[in-house]
Structures are given as structure tokens and as C-alpha cells.
Amino acid sequence: MGSATMITKNRAFLGRAVRYLAAECGIRGFLDLGAGLPTQGNVHEIALEEAPDSFVTYVDDDAVVAAHGRALLEGDPRVRFLRGDLRRPEEMARAGDVYGNANAPFEARPGARIARFFDGFDLVEPGLVPLNEWRPGDDAPPPRGGFVPVLGGVARRP
Ligand SMILES: C[S@@+](CC[C@H](N)C(=O)[O-])C[C@H]1O[C@@H](n2cnc3c(N)ncnc32)[C@H](O)[C@@H]1O
Predict the structure, then answer these.
(1) How much distance in Å is there from the Cα of 34 to the middle of ligand 1?
(2) Cis peptide bond N-terminal to 126, omega within 30
(3) Which sequence spans correspond to the domains of the chain?
(4) What is the pLDDT of residues 28-65, one digit of tens each?
(5) Looking at the whole model, is its pTM more than 0.70?
């Protein structure tokens, strides 16, 4: 099999797998590790087509790929492109350790589950977003990928 055919088949498989997960399994949080540069038939295009309440996070450890990914995909709060090394799953494990000593337990939840807390309320702009992106004002941006893996939102009772 030629390399062009292999790439095409790989892409087609990715599309079918994401469509299956979104349409038939109810999956709403997608993590694409070693994502590479965005191209055609990206995970978020398929996931959001099947389920508009999906969240997609792309991760790549190549700084250039991550920068291009952010530039190409930014604008949709449901899509993130982070620079990270999949061999070093980072911040959430440490957060769990910190909260392990607290009197309130830490529970990581996907964005779609957090969004359900706001059912029946009107989220004010910019909605449910990483904490650093909620009306940042003069708040200093976070280091590295410019992303805080915690979502926050403010809502009004209608
Ligand atoms: C072949 S490319 C992307 C393929 C894409 N997932 C696809 O199926 O079309 C592989 C990507 O993995 C990234 N990568 C390699 N090692 C990685 C690691 N340890 N953590 C995160 N990304 C990594 C590379 O930078 C590269 O962009």
C-alpha cells in the first residue's frame, strides 16, 4: 500500500471512529493526542457535526504544530489546541494530589457535564470557558499553552 493510500485510509478510519463515538456512544469529550496539523476531516468537525455540545482538545508536543493548530482553530470555545507531551499527563493529576488533603474531594468532569449545571440559566458571555479566558482583563495569561484546564462560567436566572 502506498503512503498516500495509508494516509487516506487513516483519515477515513479516524472519521468513522469519531462519528461512531459521538453518534452511537454519547461521547462528548474528545482528546486527540499527537494530533498533528489540522487538515481535512478533523476530529472537531466530525464530532461537532454529530453532537454540537462536544468539546475537542487537540494535543501535540511540537511547538510549531501547536501554534499553527491554535491559529487555525481558535474562535470556537468548544475546540482547544494545546502543546503537551502525552508521556507526561500533567496538571490534573497534581490537582488531584492537592485536593486529596482537602475536606472537599476533587472530581474531574468533562465540559459537557459541567455545562449541565447551568441548565435553566442564561450563561453570560463568553459562556463556559477555561478560567483564564473568562473576561481576562489584566489577568496575566498562564504559562506554556495559554490554557487552564478548569472551566468557569457565570449565569443569570432568567
Ligand atoms: C503523524 S503526526 C499526526 C497524525 C494525526 N494524529 C493523524 O492521525 O492524522 C504525529 C504527531 O504526533 C506528535 N507527537 C509525537 N510525539 C508526541 C508526544 N510525546 N506528545 C504529543 N505529541 C506527540 C508529533 O509532533 C506529530 O505532530
Answers:
(1) 3
(2) yes
(3) 1-88, 90-158
(4) 989 999 999 988 899 999 999 999 989 898 999 999 99
(5) no
